Amino acid sequence: MRYFFCFLFSSCLAQAASKVFTGFNYGAFWSLEANVKKKADFLDGFNLARNLTTDIPFDSARLFTCKAAGTLNEPTEAFDAAVDSKTNLLLGFWITPGQKGGSPDENVKNEMAALEKGFKKHGQALSDLVIGLSIGSEDIYRAEEAGEIGVTAAVVGQTIAQVKKDIAASPFAQYMKDKPIGHVDTAKYAVVDNADFIGMTAYPYWNKDSIELASTSFQGSLEQVKQHAGNRPVWIAEMGWPSTDTELHSAAVAGVNEAQKFWSEAGCAVFGKYTTFYFELLKDTTPEQKADWSIIDTNTRQPRIRNLSCGNPQAKLPTGASAISQASSQSVGSTPPSIPVSGSPVTPSAPAVILSSESPSTGSSTMHVTVTRTTTVTPQPILPSLAASGDTSLTTFIVTMTSTTIITAQASIVTLASGNQSPSPTNGVASLGKLYPRTKSVKANMLQHNSKWR
């Protein structure tokens, strides 16, 4: 007999040991902020996702804000829809201030008020569905690289710490107990202080990668983020490939066949293994967003991608957020973005990504541990001295069992470089800047996916 055991060793198994959730990103309004999403809109999306013909349980949703679009601090009706449909939620606080250099405090105050109202209405029923809370979405990318209104890494880290304290002292503290609180940003800026999980957005399409290289590019970015995340789990907050686009992006070509290939190769490689939110189910991006990333055709109400299955038994993990562990493993104009927007991918200008291997170095490698236990059973005839006198039919055996445990460990590092540049082990996360440099035009008051650009 042979038994196989997987031992849980800190970072190497943190993601596999935790519950895994899979779903889509949902904005707060349809294209324009005036078109506020109501309970029926969210419920329609949640049920569409749950009823897709696939072996992946798309029963989770990522929200960019806890507020209803166009309100100061009223709760999103996504809460009502989630409770009715039993849809798991990755909550979001929109923290980007209204002007450069501004503080996120006022936004956080209103997000907290909206969340408190949500819990006051739904209590434990809502709490059981919350898998975590993201403080901000791509704020660091906008502040550090895109020249837009955003929040620096230092401020994001401080805001996460403050939100944790505020929630602990709030009337709804019991409902958020043990819920991981983190941040979502592009691969280069995803790792921040005080985050319980690292939320990553990655779009090879915006990197102008061909669809043939897209999965390799995405996996390389994921591995880099994992290496710098330490023991913290990496969640894939946004990924996808558009089926149509009126603009050209070098080798990256939009199309149904390309979207299918990205889903089957890049998506199926992470569904059921990492908590993942695909972009997007139904098109709700702002008008300036020329690409259509939606899985469902709004006219036919049918999937654009014909094969949504992955044939991956790991995808059918048990869901339900009530017992989730913290170890469970995306050019704004002159008008300031006071709230999150409709998803709007961005236009990057970067050379193709090249994968190269590098010798492991202490402290930066990812350790994979496999433990195999082999039990050998050796039957032996019973000794004559132990046999009953005159009993010639005795067939009892003494069984000797020996156990051998073999542990093998392999460390590996994957490094990404751009163009012909040689990979440098000292570049760290900074090297990821070449993966998804992006520029985007996003309207103010972005209550949705303020960034579908990767």
UniProtKB/TrEMBL annotation:
Its main location: other. GO terms for cellular component: cell surface; extracellular region; fungal-type cell wall. It is an enzyme of class 3 (hydrolase). Residues 316-346 are annotated as: Disordered. It is found in: Cell envelope. The keyword Transmembrane does not apply. It catalyses: Hydrolysis of (1->3)-beta-D-glucosidic linkages in (1->3)-beta-D-glucans. One of its GO terms (biological process) is cell wall organization. Residues 1-16 form the signal peptide. Coiled coil: none annotated. Keywords: Hydrolase, Signal. Its EC number is 3.2.1.39. The keyword Ribonucleoprotein does not apply. Residues 321-331 have a biased composition (Low complexity). GO terms for molecular function: glucan endo-1,3-beta-D-glucosidase activity. It comes from the Eukaryota. InterPro entries: Beta-glucan_modifiers, GH. Belongs to the glycosyl hydrolase 17 family. This is glucan endo-1,3-beta-D-glucosidase.
